[in-house]
Each structure stands twice: as structure tokens, then as C-alpha cells.
Design goal:
The longest helix is centred in the N-terminal third of the chain and has 27 residues. The protein is 68% helix and 0% strand. The two termini are 21 Å apart. The chain contains 41 helices and no strands.
Amino acid sequence: MVTDDIYQLISEHQIASAVKLLGEQMQSHVRIPVEQRDRYHSAKRILETMLQYLESPIQDPELVTNYSYLLRTLYEVTDALRDTEWLAQSPQYEKQANYYSLLLDNGGLAMVVEQLTLQSNLATVDRPRYDELVKRLTMGLLYTQEWSDEVASELDQLDDYVQQAALTAVTLALLRSWHWGKLCWLLVKLMKTQGEQTMVRIRAVVGVLLIGELYSSRLALYEDQLPYTLQQIGEAITLEEYDMIWSHRLRMKYTPQVVEYVQKLFGRFNSPEFQQRFQEILSSTGESEDPATFESVFGDEEELMPLVDDVQEGYEALKRLVARGFDVNAFATRSLLQGPFFDDEAHWLIPFDLQHSSLAAVMAQFSNEYQLGEDQIMTLLRESIFQQVDIDFYGSIFRISQLPGQVLQGISQGVLAMENVINRTPYIRPQERQLLEADDYTKALQGYICQLARIYTFIGAKVAAETPFEIRFGKLNPFAQKQTEELYDKHLDLLRAYCVQTKEYAGEQAAIQFQIMRTTEPEARAQLMYRLAQIYYEEQKYMQAYFVMQQIPPHLLAGETSPLFIAQILYRMEQVGLAITLMEKVRQQSEPEKPSLAVLRRLGTLYMKVRLYDKALPLLLQCEFEDEHPDTLYPLIAWCLMMTQRWDEAKAYVSRPVTSYDQLDKDSLELEYKEFAPLLPALLTLIGGDLQGTLQALGRLLTTADEREQKRLISAYGECMYDLQQLGVPSHLLELIQTWLHQRINTF
């Protein structure tokens, strides 16, 4: 969607480009409310005024406040545009949104919540009415923007069943579009469940983490308005919860591989021969005067006993997959979730409840004909379904009710027999708050992640929201900053494993891989694998390149080829710390001899990347005196000197010409600093406090550059902003200068 590009531009503070693109889109979307159009034009005028002030010797006293207001306004106007995109691209979503907007016109969400609040026993005395009100509530939360403090307050008074459904609806709505009121309520629910292990807690913490990840760049603008500080929110989420949620989301991406495995595991039971024999057994059992039992169907048939043993082995294998968090139910889900009940998306958001009005006829049949009560039904479901996925429970109930009577009779006897020998947990209504044991909490959390996967697989077009299974790796979640940092390495390892196990990189290099398999001589294999790693690297498949290089014994490649290339790969994988560790190891191993210039260059440049300028500077200075092309190091040395506040020396290096860039390898890390070289005089001027001189210098650079060079200069400036902020330049001033640069090459 175009709005994705606008959001990205705003988050990167490319305001001029964002305003221009947003204006173009608003002209082509007639559905944008007049109020939002007025807000857009107001934001545009504010920006123009701010840029005028920037070039003026008179400073704007409200600069910081106005800039934050500008960003929030642009985000919120883009939200309105986003809603029109959803309506245009998803007819199903538009239909549902219009329907529930009309349905709530008589009293809105407030009246629905009030009725549920005033009739606290409605779930037991008039279940159809209760279910209808819950449906109106959840669908209103999902499809409409309606919200009020009254609704938020009264939602907290409702039973757990309603709160669970509401939390899922709010999470899905926020994954589609920003809504301040719903976000605050979600955070309140998180804080109120701190220290609990309940089903309400699960839906609250999952929602908060997903939303925090999606809006990581935006939340900083609203931080002072949040009902709690970021530190308080972070302390309310345990490390274990964050880890489980992140990991289970990743494991959902393995679903195609798990389904394939399960199909192979039990594929023999779908064979025509087995199905025919199974039907024969059922038919012969049905001729008996005695009712069918589990034993009469399976236990007395000798030829089936080996198959039963195989089933047991398969069952244990599936349990191991489940224990690791994989979705084995996906194998049978599509066939389960069919029928009118599942055509209503409201049923995908609610917890599983045996007393739901849609199950009344089925439960009466189980009770009257087969003497199966709620406890027995839950025993059957828990034995037949691995994950606690609410929608799968509903599907299984309907599927069981459709089995032949003789089979149901046998199932009934089997379940009752199990109940007699095994102490089962009684059925507890989801309306009642229940503290879960640690293992049950983990299983329930895993089940809810699976539930979200079901929603996006089966009714994603209706809810029209961002998928929660797009892992936005490398960004700190503002609601869990500490947890993100602590688990970064572990989660990176999980992603690497996913890459290898799913074989995402296999196939494109089939020819060279085939050659490797046919080559036995170690040195030749090493050279082929090195070439394969280079191909992966050139295609920007850095993780694949890394794993190939890890399989090559370093001594089979000349000199320092292996560590230097691995360090290069690690840098591209944004694992600069690991690259530094590797280069330092090579440096130490070369002693007492002096390390090569290639190692020193690479190490010095890597230290610059992690902003350890005091460590980078002596290495770069050593290379300057010994390297045959020292001029390519001048911008790096100048930058280090500037960041260590050695101003005069920095100015001296800035003035030195650089002529040897063409002598460097095309992928040399030093080349990344080429674009910084022309900016350095202007940046030193800015640090010195001369804003007007800075703008004049930057303006001259833009005037003498072509369009491509202009974009490179602006991009290079954007990368400098963090360091300049550390030297005392205000962040809002840096961002406005960036916008000024964009405005010089864009009309908005």
C-alpha cells in the first residue's frame, strides 16, 4: 500500500517527501473526511513556516512543540488515508465495516456494554441474547472507530469471556490502524493483569507486544501521553512472556513444513486400501447386536495392531513438536473449520465455551444420547487436540457430532472409561477468572498465537489487518526494550535455524552445489564453497553466505581470506560486535608479528561502525602511514577526530583531497564513508553553532550535485544525525535540517 511508504518516510523524518506523497494521494481519494484534509493543509502550512524560521536569524520559540505536533498530525492523516485503502482493496472488509457501523447507530458500543454490565447473569439465563451482544461488541471494536472513556471503563466490569473477545478485537483493529483510545485500554489491561497467569493476561500481553513492535517509531511522539511510562510497561512484561511470544510467532512460520511432516507421518491412513478395510470393520461391527466400542473397532483386529502401534509412535512425535511450539493442528484445520458457524468472523475472536448458543443442539445430543457431559467432552477434546486453540475446539465439536451414531457410542464408552481411571480437570467456564499453572499458561499462550494464525489464514481478508507473523527483527520494542536487548542473540539464532531448516536459500545455486557434492578433494571443495558463499553475498543473502563459510576449514583458504570475508558478512548481517571479536582474534594470533594492513583497516572501520572512535583512531592512523592509498582513510580519520572533539586536527584532515576511491574493492567498508566527505565542513560548521553558515554550505553542495548525488548527500546526512546529537546538536534541529534538504529537491 502507498500508505506504507508514507509511514516509512515519516518514521525516517523525511517530512518533505512524506507531505508531497500524502498530498498526491489525498487528491485521488475522495473518501478522505474534510476534517482530515483540513488537518493536512494545516500541517503543510506549519512545515512551511518552520522552514522559513530555519533560514531566518529569528528562532521559533515553539519549534520543538510544533515539530512533534506536525509529526503526529501527518501520522493521523495518513491513518485516515489508510482506512480508505482498506475499503478500496478489501470489499469484504468494507461490507462488514458498513454493516456494523449501521448496526451500532441506535446506541453504539456504549449501549451494548451497558446492557452486558447491567445483566451480569445474562450468559446463563439468556445465552442467545448474550452471544448476540458479545458479537456486536467485538465486531464494533474491530470494524468501527467508535470509542469513549465510558466504554473503556465499563469493559473492565465485564466477565473474562467478554474481555478476552474484546482484547482480540482491539488487537486486530490496532494491527489495521492506529487508535489512541484502544491502545490506552490495551495498556491498562496489561498493567491490571500484572503478576497474573490468566487467559485475559495472555490476550493483553500478546496485543501490547505486537502493537509496540508495529508502531515502534511512532510511539515516541505519544510517550508523555501514555497512561504509564515505558519503564512501567516494560516491567509489567516478563522476560519469559516476551521470549515465548516472539518464539511462537516465529514457529508459526514453520507451519508448511510441519503440515508436510504430519501428512507423511499419517499418509498411510489415507490410502484407499486402509480406508476400505476400515469401512469393512465398521460395517461388520454394525451388524452386531452389541453397540460398537473402541476395542471392537481396533483391538480385536490383529492386522490393525501394528498400525495402532505406529499411531502411538506418531502421536509421541507430534507431542514433541507441540512441546517445542509448532502448530501440528494445522494439518487438519482446513477440514475442521467449515460451515455456517465459521463464516461468521465473530466466532474466531471469542474464547471456546461449551455453553455457546451455537452448540446447544450438539451438547443436548451428547448428553441425552451418549451420556457425555461438559467434563467428558473436554476430556475428549484435550485428548484429541494438541494445542489449546479455541477455534479448533469449536471445529472438533461440530466434526464429532457428525460422526455415525455407532462411532459416537464407542467414543462415549472410551471417554467414560478414561474418566474412571484418570483424574481429569473439570470444565471451567471461560467467564470465570482462573489462575493457570506455568505449564498451562505456556500452552494457552501458544494456543492463542495459533488462534491468530488461524484468523490470518482463514479470514484475513475480512479483518484486513497487518499480519502479526511478520517478524520486525532488529528494532527495539518500546514496550519491552530490556527484553528485546537481552534476547537479541537468542532470537537471531532462531532466525538462522529457520533459514537453514526451511532451505530458503536452496535451489538458486543448484549447479555449484551439485559440483560440491561430486568433489572430494578438500582444497577444491573449499574453493567451490568459497565461491558459493561469494554468490550468496553478492545476492545479499548474507545469512546463507555465513553458514557456507562456517563449513570451510579456514586453513584451506589462503592467508586471512576466511576471517576477513566472514567479518564482512557479519557486518552486513548487522552483527558488527561478532565481526570485531573475530578480527581481534586474528590480530592477536598474528603476534608477535604485526597484523596485516587489511586486518587493521577492517578492524578500525568496524570500530567506527559501533562508534568506538577512540579505538578506531589509532588503527586508522597506523594504516595511514603504511598504506599505499592512505587518502581513502582521511574522511574516516576526520570523523574520528571530530567525534573525539579534536576540532583543529579534524579540520586539517577534512581539507585533504581524496583521489584513490577507485583503487578500493567495490564492497570495501571505507567506501561507505565516501558520501560523508563533502558533508564534513558543513557539519563542523553546525557543531560550531553557525546554523546559517551550515545551510549555505549544504545549499552549495546540493546546487553542484546531480539528482542522484543529491539523494546520496541527504542519505549520508541522515546517518550522521545520531552522532551530531551526541555532540550537542538538538535532535529537532537536525530533523528540520533534513526536511529542509528534502524540500530543496522536492516541491511539496
